[in-house]
Amino acid sequence: MDNYNPANLLLLLVILFNFFLLGSSRLNACIRSVAIQGGILSLLPLFLHGFSGHSLILAGGAFLLKGLAIPFLLLRAIRQVHIRREMEPLLGYVPTLLLGTLATGFLMLITRRKAITQALGYLIFENGVFIFGMLLAEAMPLMVEAGVLLDLLVAVFVMGIVMHQINREFSTMNTDQLSSLRE
Amino acid sequence: MIAALLLLPCLGGLAAFCLPSDRFRPLLLPVCGLGHLVLTFLVIQGGQGTPLSLAGNWIAVDPLSRLILLIVSLLFCGCSFYAVGYLRYRIAWGNRIFVSCLLIFLAAMSLAAVARHLGLLWVAVEATTVASAPLIYYNRNRFSIEATWKYLILCSVGIALAMLGILFVAYAALAGGAQVSLQFDDILRGAASYSTPWLRAGFVFLLVGFGTKAGFAPLHTWKPDAYGEAPGVVGALLAGGLTSLAFLALLRTLQIMEAAGDGAVAREAFLAMGLVSLGFAAVFVIRQPDFKRLLAYSSVEHMGILAIGVAIGGVATFGAMLHLMNNALTKGVLFLSAGNIHRRFASKRVGEVQGAITLVPVSASLFLLGFLAITGSPPFAPFISEFTILRGIFNGGHYLTGGLFLFFLAVIFIGMGSTVLSVVFGTPTERKGDPDYRETMVTTGTPLVLLLIILFLGIYLPEPARKLFAEAADLLEVRP
Q: Which of A71, B68, B222, B352 could form a disulfide with B113 if both were Cys (CB 3.0 to 4.6 A apart)?
């Protein structure tokens, strides 16, 4: 047991949060758990690669963006449009929980109806990619990781604006309404 | 030189954001567009001898980047003049975000073209998605919101898959005991010892990820919506610039697969994607009631043609490189003239738009000629490139592919033709629309110039241009 690594515990926590996200119907809770998940993930480089400058900056950047800035943007978005509950998933909560071990983010994208939960699904998917990227931190220079995080932030920012406009135009956040363009 | 090329549009975007006047702000576009074109020519000239590089070989110009850079720069320069005319009609809407995003979009496209590091390439391609989303939303109605949302979600997820693919490629290096690096030259050097299963898995993710962005069928679903709802000038930049860039990213993955000695698998996948795209386009082009969506399916078709050309190899690769340029410029002609027709009739439904030739004669003629060009009629340049690809297919003995290729092209010609002809000819509908709309020099001159370039390239291919295409094609033909 001497090679015990806290990183395993962190990954376990991340997966538990995935289950919570799939089973929860409260939007606020969903966003908070994505935030906590992001925060936990940001600790990962420290445990995997030790306290080097690279991993410290990476952890700090990831914590600021994934744990604070992005959840703040999303919470502001739902405050503006006054929605509280997600509910009405396309596929029930229990089946998605069962499938959830495979690809949480993808499932959230496909089976949830509100624009904001689709954005959350994208974020969780991105978190999954982040975990995978951690295994290869030596191949990924800091500049590139910073760029990836920055792109993510701006993407969520733009998504927040579009969500606001969807709500203004359709008086709802359900993406079912977004079906007038088809053949 | 490259640094100036990348910084110019960034600074332009910043200046556009700070400038208070809606009337003068659009003038920044042609200034930056022309500057960018001049710098591009300088980079291409300077790059003939030694390869230019910057920032520790993260940014470098090889023949493929030169070609894509030239395409993007030419198209953007044309569109920037058109945009000045377009934004004049829309002065009440404000254009701070529109102009800044256009310039940032140009910066991101240039960065993607010269990126020599897979991570940097990814960042730049994702930046193009984010920068172009507000452009699609410019019309601010429920349709454009829907198109923007679909575009944003689909392309972001697609690009995230590509990220996974990039990590798989790095993992292939780790598993194969090679040096783990995402710098493109390191990858090409070490690829021979990469672990094959990881590399193939990475290739699939990259193909799906960047393929979404390029709009191969069946990953093209954002395309008709985005092209249909975006302003014509944005449609032209997406169909000519963005898709060419995504295709460049796919060519990079092909290069990696070739270096690893696994090119045959990659080429098969490209061929399948290409044929499926042609098939989808042929089905959806027939009886298409919306002429801007029609152009989107034409874009799917031409991505398919490009993929087939590269997959066949040999002379067809040269044809595909030529076709990249021809497709981009012809799409410029089509989208810009379609934008004018849309503006005059305030509709893009075939039943409501008829007899455009009497109301907007120049735009309608350009639209008609653009249609003839894109479907491969001589003497326009796409005829030469499509014919070259076809020659490559038959030379290689791929008769079934060749037959399907010709069949789909014929179906698309007929399908597009019926829609385009009913838009251009017939008795004009005067029910609604904007009767005060007049064609101006800038809004018709730009597509005219692009059409003349296409015509010129179709009749005579100058030696420097031929060399540019041939060098780009050679890069893909290197086999270990």
A: B68
